[in-house]
Each structure stands twice: as C-alpha cells, then as structure tokens.
Prior knowledge:
The complex is a heterodimer of chains A (199) and B (162). Chain A is mostly helical.
Amino acid sequence: MEIEELQATWTAMSQELDKQKRLTDKIILEMTQQKYKSKFHGITLYETMGSVICFATALFLVFNFYKLDTWYLMLCGIITLAFLVMLPILTLSTLGKLKNLEISEYNYKETLQKYTKVKNRLLLVQQFGVYASFLLLFTTLPVASKVLSDKDFFLMEKDVWLYVFIGVVVVFLVFFARWGYGCYKNITDSAEDILKEME
Amino acid sequence: MDREGEFIQVIKENEGVIFKITTIYTDNREDQQDLYQDIVYQLWKSFESFRGEAKFSTWMYRIALNTALTHIKRNKRKGHSVAIEEVVLQQTELYDTAFEQRIKILYKHIHQLNVLEKGLMLLLLEGKSYSEISEITGLTPSNVGTRLSRIKLKLRSKIEKK
Lengths: 199, 162
C-alpha cells in the first residue's frame, strides 16, 4: 500500500464513518456527566487506598501517643506520624494536579510540557517516598512494639526471628520501591523523549 | 437550541473523527471506549469557554489530541492489550472484506508511528493545512512540513519492506 493509497483509504473510511451514527443523545449526555465507569478514574485507587491506611494508622497513633513514655520513643512517634500524614498528602495533591490539568487551553506541545512538569514532581515525591519508607521502617518498629505490646524495642531482648522479619521487610521494600519508582520513571522518560523531539 | 443541545449536535457531527483518534491512540476496545468518553467529557468541560475565536475543528482536534496524549501516558503501565483487529472490527463490520483489509493495514502502519507522529499523520490525513496543524500542535508550519516529510519517508520504507 502506497502513501496515496493510505490517504484514499482514510478518506473512504471517513465517509463510511460519517454515515454510521452510533451515538444517541442519552449516551452523549452520560459521557458528559462521566456516568460511565472508566479505568482512568481508577488510576489513583492504589494511592487513595494507601492514603486511607496511612491516615487511619496516624489516627490510631495519635490516640495511643501517651504510651510513648521516653524521649526517643516520642521522637520515633513524631517522625512516624509526620510521614504517615505528609506522604499521602503530597502524593494525592500531585496526582490531583495531574488529573486536573487544563488541557483545553494549550496546544499539544504546551500540554506535553505541563504534563511532564507535573509528572516530574510526582517522580520526586515518589523518590522521597522510597527513601522515607526505609526510615519509616526503623521508626515504626519501636513505636509499634510499645503501642501494641508495651515493650521498649531498644531495651527488650530481641530474638532471631525479629532480625529475619526486618530482613524480609527490607528485601520486600527494596523490590517494591524499585518497581514503583520504575513505573513512574518509564512514564516520565517517554514524555520527555517526545518533548525533546518537539524542540 | 440550548448549549446542551448544541453540544450533542457537534458531537454527533464529529463522532467519526473522535472514533478515528481513539482508534489510532489505543490498542484494545476497553481503552478505546475509555478514551472516547474522556474526550467527550473534556470537550464538554471546555465547550462553555469556546468562543469561536479559533475554528471549531481546530479547537476540537486540539482537545481530543491533548486528551489522547495524557490518557496514553496515564495508561502506559497497563500491560494487557488485544490486537488492533479487534478495535477495527467494530467499525468495519459493515464493509466488504477487501476494504476491511485495507483499513486494517492502514491502522497497522499508523500504529507503528510514535505519539507525535501519529497526531501529525492523523491531521494530515484529515486534510488539515500546515498552519492549522501548527496551531493544534504548537510546532511551526515549516517544522510541521519537515516532520511530515520524514513521517512519509518512514512509512514508505516500512511499506516497501512488506
């Protein structure tokens, strides 16, 4: 098939499509009200679920904060609380900006630029989250130990299974962080490639 | 006619255009339906602010292509996809076999292009002028010309290899 044939096929197909009227008033109106279930709206599902878990845990910690009776346990508690509240807010607000990008005002190039900028911010938040989750692991353990079983993690006798547990969690965190970061990185890289190509 | 009625009218007049955009930017029916809904939703959201300063088709292509662009990036992490044939089938069920085959080949060639090239090729096939393509994409008209020549060369070499 030659280029000219592609053009001719496109034109013929367009004429055929113009004859096929599939949309009804009702379907169009429903689309304008986003009544259809779209995968697009589920994109932030993981992030929203994660945030609910974080906020619920933070609330639980606030109510049990009085159990943290030494300065170092309080410090761990404050760091844990800060991350549990800050990280979801940062992630959700960046995702919100991405979803509400005003695409009607800009041309293709400008949209791509703005989109890439917000995506990069999301990547930065993601990176921050990766490093924070490691620190969070070591502040959560003493806090959880005290709040849930009233034991001072720093003073208690540690058995070998605890070290195994920490090891497993660290390995899981490394893989999970790499996977999550990789997802966002791929998306941002491909957007930047197109931008470079347009310049 | 009220604003809602006007909108329904323009969507009905342009449903084929939206269909073509969603077909070249997706590779399975589910994604195509999602993108279709998203484009209609974005057009409705901006319909109030459309004051007729730009040509209606320029405005519509701009929003539809921008939606496709951001939609693709958002959905890129998904792995599953079905062959393009399944998407095209829905449209070609009324056509004869030879025509259906030609359409499949046409989409197959377009699908080999990158996101930007797809947009440019679509606008060219839709009969848009370089200045109109420039207005939609933000590229200069001369840049549009250069890029389209390159795309044609790329397509030609792919077609010849077959």
